[in-house]
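Protein modeling request. Please complete all fields; requests missing the sequence field cannot be processed.
Requester role: graduate student
Desired output: 3D structure, token encoding
Chains: 1
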Amino acid sequence: MTSDIPSTMHAWRKHMGNPDPIWEVVPVPTTPPTGFLVKMLASGVCRSDHSILTDEKPRPWFQKQFTLGHEGCGTIVKIGDQVSSDSEFKVGDVVVLDAVPGCGSNDCPECSRDLPQLCLRCQHAGIGQDGFHAPYAAIDQRGVVRIPEGVTYAEAAVATDAVKTGYHAITRRGEVKANETVFLFGLGGLGFNALQTIHHIGARVIVSDVKEDLLEEAAKLGIPRKDIVPVGKSPTEFITENGLDGKIDTVLDFVGMHQTFRDAQVIVRRGGKIVCVGTLNHENTLDMKNGIRKRLSFIFSYGGRKDDLEEVLELIAKKVIQPQVVGKAPSEFPNTLKGLLAGQIKGRIALMFDQ
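Delivered output (355 residues):
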């Protein structure tokens, strides 16, 4: 298989100072000593790709030029010389790729606290360093998980962020339980997968979105009509009119706009939790007096861990979570980004390689 690996490839790249993706020829990555060279099968397109392209305040590890894409799956085609001979992975295995797996060092301030997604030392694939929107990608052995039977390549790719991020926010950060009543803002690429996670847990969930078709999808999933906020209806009024004042234990905000953050602070019960995931507005206002008097917990969540990824893949394999994802050719990446920003795409798009 290694004899078929080319020396160069086309990739969608970020050039600092340019907000548009660049399709250019670059060398195929070198196999990392402690990892694998992977032939890509699918890579998920995310709104974060646009944020990274337009980011004028890059983080310290950002390179001046790098390959985009932080959701991926592919086939191992080469193994690094420092990977143990008794590794569970071998050439030909189909795996998902965790973009930020952490360095795993005991002296790492983040990894030592089980926060690998916040590690500053490891590779950040597609987030300032070479990622997955290309035919080949390099990944450390810490960042691969085998795909269970019954999970498609496109589903596997988007599971690494679009499913894992919400799952981590709900189960690890928000610690949502079956006896809770939850309010969910947003049914986009992450939010609809989050809804399926909450539904699986067994909590009651009140759903709000600005798109009627997404609310219909929630109804098809089994969310009662009485728990769906009609488009155009004020969430605060809906809560009052339906006798839910003081009954919302947790608000999950997958939108992050001024209005959703304000409404969250009003509708959550005393001693309740507000879990923040969406960032459509980079800055929002916290009502200090309200938050103190109600003794609210504001919880921010980012990414997830390898065990989260393993768990969501099993849930996808069992059809408990069914990501809404459509495959497209890699050449469609710029148009796909535009469609996401314009709100024309439901769910997620995966770029499919060699299909």
